[in-house]
Amino acid sequence: MIPLKKRLIGAAIALVVPLTAAVAIPQASGSSVSEDDWERLVVAPSSSVKVSAGQEQLSIFEDASAMLDDHMEIWGKNHFDPDGTVVVNVTAGWERVVGEDLNELVTNASAPIRIREVDHSSQELMREVLDPRLPKMDFAGASVVGATVDPEENRLIISLTEVDEDSVNAARVVFGDDVRFRQGQRFEPTLGPDRWKDRYPYSGGAGYAPLNFPYSEASCTSGFAMRRVSNNVQYMLTAGHCIGTSGPASYNAAYSLVGDGSVWANLLGSASGATNTLNSSGASWAINGHYYGDLTVWPIDAGDPTIFWGGRRATAYSTIKSFNTDFPSTTETNLCLSGANGGNNCGWDVVDVDVSATIGGAWVYPLVHVADSSGPCVFIGDSGGPWIKGVSGGSRAVGIQSGATRPNQPTGPCEAVFTSIHTAYGLWGIVPLTG
User: Fold this and answer.
1) Rounded-to-integer distance, Cα 396 and Cα 382, Å
2) Structure pTM?
């Protein structure tokens, strides 16, 4: 057993634990576990974990995340110890990059925090699993449907559609024994029929039909009205897989019901070339070395700082009062989705952040993974819709709906993935309108 090394960093004791998590595709790393011992590589299915962290710890967690968000090459994600201590995981050389700022955060922290050096950044661990060949590979009848990084263990966790001796041993040939496996479910794009009629100025949570689907019905949901910080030009944000991808230019159109409800008008007007974070295969593509989930925008003349709020044919609104500037906390509970077909859908808890998932057979990254034990599940047609957290006087913008398990089911358990709202600012410099 390798002994723990301790060293003083700022005002905290940092445990520097040599850890390994090598992933290679298509070659395997060396095996140290016999085929009969495959169960040792299996972990429990994903679920939201509650820790004893108060508001001060959550604020420190978010401050550390914001500090490292632009330095993914050294960041191994943060996690909470069982007692609520914030643990910041960074790779060697972090002092040269964020040493001064991070040490200041530790010194001035009003709650326990420690810095831990790990062998791998989350970016390094996730890079190999984003190989476009992976979703099509067969592992004794099982497929890879998701992946995340366990920051505490500093290793990759792979989700398989089936977890048994044959599938795990087949996957070990590719991933080796430093990776862990768990049961996962496929996330399906939540496209579909039916919707309200939105009117100028445009709100989030409204139904529309992209040109690449029959626009006799609404197939997706608008997310949030956004503005570019630099010049206040306005856009509507929604899911990339709804409008189409960066491939076919004809997909850059979105239709909404007008008049008596039998006429559909193009919300894009004469505008074209809606920017999309997905490539022509429907997978997230690297833009300047970064991935931006499942997003697209179209220009609008004017938006409203509201989302539709209520049932499927709602006419009421909720005002957007604020928005997240980073991934939601892994302790966040009772998030709500306002979908074109599902209406208000609350009671969702964050399971994990900065995860990847196969949606429609293509890798999408980074995403937020949420779950609801009782349901109802996300409905077909809710793709692109706004995820929010209720706050005094309205809502806080959290994300844009992407995919879900068990769509249209009236009761849980249900899981969903969405793109964090802060990702849109990182790519386009846009933020939600607030009122």
Assistant:
1) 19
2) 0.72
